[in-house]
Amino acid sequence: MKRIFVLAACLGACGVLLAQNVEWPTYNGDYSGRRFSQLTQINKDNVKSLSLSWVYRVNGGADPSAAVIKATPLVKDGVMYFTAPDHAWAIDARTGHEIWKYQWSSKGGIHLGNRGAGIYENWLYFETPDCHLISLNRKDGSFRWSQSICNLDQMYYSSVAPIIIKNHVIVGVSGDDLDIPGYLEARDPETGDLQWKWMSVPKPGEPGSETWPSEDAMEHGGGMTWVPCTYDPEMNMLFVGTGNPQPVIIGKGREGHNLFTESIVALNADSGKLVWWFQPSPHDTHDWDAVQTPVLIDGEINGQPKKLVAQASRNGWFFVLDRKTGKDYVSTEYVKTNWAKGVDAKGQPIPNPAKEPKEDGALVSPNQGGAANWPPPSFSPQTGLFYVNATRAFSIYYVYDTSEKAEGWGGNDQGGWGESMLQAIDYQTGKIRWSHKWEGDSVRGGVLSTAGGLVFAGDPENNFIALDAKTGDPLWHANLGKGVSNGPMTYELNGTQYVVVAAGDSIYAFVVNR
Amino acid sequence: MRVTKVLLLALCAGAIVYGQLPDAPGRDTVKRVCGACHPAEVVLAKGMTREQWGSIVSNMISRGAKGTDAEFAQIIDYLSTNLPPKAPAATAGAAKRPRRPSNLIDEAGAADKQIVDEEAAARGSAIYKAQCVSCHGEQARGTAKDGTDLVRSLIVLEDRNGSKLGPFLAKGHPMQSGAASSSLTQAQIEDLSNYLKQEVDNTLRTGPYNKVLNVLTGDPKAGEAFFNGAGHCNQCHSPTGDLAHIASRYDPPTLQLKTVFPQTVAFGRHSMGAGRKPVTVTVTTASGEKAEGELIEMDDFNVSLRDKDGQYRSFARGPGVTVEKHDPYEAHEKLLDQYTDKEIHDVVAYLETLK
Asked: What ipTM did this prediction achieve?
């Protein structure tokens, strides 16, 4: 980080130093989850001249499972690495030229998306829909080993990007079909062997077990780890969001808060032991995974310096917590919702039972897609604003299964109407500093902010847009024909800053030509 | 059949192979619009009625699927024509069960997962009722008194045509009739396996029981009062005009969805787009020129419309250019923040009287 600060400080004055490379070596660019880059070569004043440098199209749609790139590419040693289900690529970060491509022979699983890869020394790691962690040689994409990390027959699958912390490969699991417990694992980067495993649901007698009616409900209680965690090296703590409880929609049979589903948890990075927890959606019945990136902020609350962690959760609420203790400083809606009756003593929303799914339907906002979903948000220390692409949507939630023991989903939501906007949230108060309304009804795609005073985001009409980070005014855009499908990222290579985004099956790299 | 073929292909190739979407009008639209977010070919695993496809497409629109009314209508036509419900197996046991619209969430589980043989499952169901139901329950999900939940059982989930179930039962397991479980034949075990796999499929989110049960819980009188009062519905609608016989056109769940979300839910027996009113825009350029028409596309930078002569026109937005949007469903959008669930159910109960 220090080197980057020096780089920013001597911008324009020491041209030679500018030729340093600034990489993007992990899913969020760094462990903080801020997706804020110190790079300033592309900035408010020149972004109008941002133009296309190269495009890489993965396959022209020949292989449907790789047709949408949701991965945030990594850049290391001048090479860009990214993934799609069963696929990994290395391309030249300067030109988009393909260096190698790897394809895994799948044994099944849901091929919905893959969020990216992790790097440790000479090795690349990614997860596959059929429950495997794969290690490849970064040099040529050759296969090194694979390890099974979940049971396909129980309908687990994998989609998350591994995060490498010290000598731990942190892997999460996916699967919302048939009442299975979620977990997070640390694996050995050399062998793939298990180092520790943290379960999203407790065992009888353990803390949290009092929030479940039975051992059976706990054992099948869900809490998938869909999104990469963040990490504070000083505290040696991981910050992880967990998914919805299971059965997904029906709350009968799992009465209670259902810890540690729908939670932000702090874990010791070397042991996986739980340090603290905070639950954005106690007893969720709407599929509102609380997995959105827990973003680390070193800031101030009421004039006091604080180490914080913030989340814009799928349920429409924004939380700011103390990183060390989990104490809540801010709990507020970042879009208007209709499901909570207020907050409890801990700052957690209290669900309104009237807005649980019903046999005849309950009108709920947000809808199942949520106010935000897996696409990553961004925090700029320069503006103090937390940026999230948000949707305010309604749908009707139904209970379908009224039998004694409903399992799986037991209901679902139907219909819908929504509106979408980019929200800039003051992290100290949770107040919306500015809101840029999009014309379309729902928005996906991540956000990037930079020290150039910019925020990059996609809109619902397939535009990739640079906005003024302070005001939200759009400054530049390009229509990519398909919606932004990943989290945009940036890097500098031999004095040129690139901004990179995926839309559908293509990766686009933009530069300011000089 | 199509599913089986796809999975066989997958087995042979050792990789997920989706097969090809049938070559028929609308295929390119399906590929383009659905394929923007997920492999369009995943629809091959399903087979559903027009209403069910309509409901799926409606859900996709609310999740951000991008297309015009005409394109969505074309997609529903394509899907319901080319991927209709699979014919139910012609056995007495199967005939009593609800029709299976699709095979779960398409890819969940292993590529070599067992495809249920409906006839074997019907035979297995009879064995189950005779030997297992008193402990394991009507839906094989276990009972409070005893009996493992078989839908969540690893033995069942990892089983392929008796590969795990057979050895387990051979070791001896109590049965209702008092007979030894080791006396079950291989054929009976395979039948049981098919029955249990069927119960697993039924439990999944696209199983046949996943449907709205009853929305007619409201009070029609209160609904009528809301219609003419607080809801201001009568300012645009009339029970003897546009809503005459509305209840004969839509089943109650569709009626409820159309009442709350008319702008995105226009399905049912009529194809999407029928009767749906377009959003219109009036664009005034810096020079004072005015253009009016149906909104095609609008973002921060551009707006396009089709005018009354059918001419497509697009304009850059910017200083001096004003765009007025007229959303015929604005009143419905406002209601989303206002009405209670009871008011919704009351209005639906009232509309249901308009046979």
From this structure: 0.92
